[in-house]
């Protein structure tokens, strides 16, 4: 089994616990201390997923440590570094990593069945350019990633927290975007995707408010065409058949 983070709550904490945390560089962490970048979901780890964790975990899973990550030592090579926040069951991550073998991918996901599912895909497809951090992505970004270390960030279909009173719990908020922009190299990109239109507009608004980022799209609404590397998932295809939209938002770090 994966080690559990004892400080992680299955649901966000009350506002009384929301004192801002600090990053290693002294800046505010993207969300208050008790509001995480995830909600721990229920779900049973299958036999195949657990076998993948047992067999492949030692190779691909990284332990959280509040110190700078040595990318070259971790991957055994120097290559462009891409962070993915919340990879779910890992199908998109495996697809992109296989499509872009020249890049190194670090995926943050606390859902154990998802970790096992991605490990299974890495083994079946013989993909070697992915590492997994089963820990809160906000803490990983704040304490393990250094300034200008990333070439790209993927945030695909984060929880929309669709009830208005829960909007404050959304992942894409100004403090996180500021922190991610600091970790991006000049020219690096931040790619978000969502199937919740109101959240899509918020993403454009929040990213547009970060002065070091610029929108790659001048289309109405600020939305970008789906980049070729992001596959259309089964969930997405079903949504499109039902008339649901999907919006991609791609910004770059100014040189």
UniProtKB/TrEMBL annotation:
Residues 1-33 are annotated as: Disordered. Pfam families: Methyltransf_4 (PF02390). Catalyzes the formation of N(7)-methylguanine at position 46 (m7G46) in tRNA. Gene3D superfamilies: Vaccinia Virus protein VP39. It comes from the Bacteria. CDD domains: AdoMet_MTases (cd02440). Keywords: Methyltransferase, S-adenosyl-L-methionine, Transferase, tRNA processing. Substrate binds at residues 163, 195, 233-236. This is tRNA (guanine-N(7)-)-methyltransferase. The keyword Methyltransferase applies. Residues 165-170 are annotated as: Interaction with RNA. Pathway: tRNA modification; N(7)-methylguanine-tRNA biosynthesis. One of its GO terms (cellular component) is tRNA methyltransferase complex. The keyword Methyltransferase applies. One of its GO terms (molecular function) is tRNA (guanine(46)-N7)-methyltransferase activity. Residues 1-11 have a biased composition (Low complexity).
């Amino acid at each position: 089994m994966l080690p559990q983070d004892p400080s992680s709550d299955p649901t966000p904490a009350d506002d009384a616990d929301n004192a801002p945390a600090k990053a290693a560089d002294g800046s505010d962490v993207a969300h208050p201390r008790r509001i995480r970048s995830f909600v721990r979901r229920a779900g049973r780890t299958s036999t195949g997923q657990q076998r993948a964790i047992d067999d492949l975990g030692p190779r691909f899973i990284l332990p959280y440590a509040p110190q700078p990550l040595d990318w070259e030592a971790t991957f055994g090579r120097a290559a462009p570094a891409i962070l993915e926040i919340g990879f779910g069951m890992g199908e998109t991550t495996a697809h992109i990593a296989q499509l872009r073998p020249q890049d190194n991918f670090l995926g943050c996901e606390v859902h154990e069945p998802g970790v096992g599912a991605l490990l299974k895909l890495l083994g079946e497809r013989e993909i070697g350019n992915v590492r997994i951090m089963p820990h809160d992505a906000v803490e990983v970004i704040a304490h393990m990633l250094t300034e200008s270390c990333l070439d790209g960030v993927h945030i695909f279909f984060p929880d929309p927290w669709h009830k208005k009173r829960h909007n404050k719990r959304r992942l894409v908020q100004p403090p996180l975007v500021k922190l991610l922009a600091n970790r991006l190299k000049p020219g690096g990109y931040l790619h978000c995707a969502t199937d919740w239109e109101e959240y899509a507009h918020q993403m454009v608004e929040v990213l547009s408010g970060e002065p070091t980022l610029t929108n790659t799209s001048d289309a109405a609404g600020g939305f970008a065409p789906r980049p070729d590397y992001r596959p259309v998932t089964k969930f997405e295809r079903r949504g499109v058949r039902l008339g649901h939209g999907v919006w991609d938002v791609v910004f770059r770090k100014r040189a």
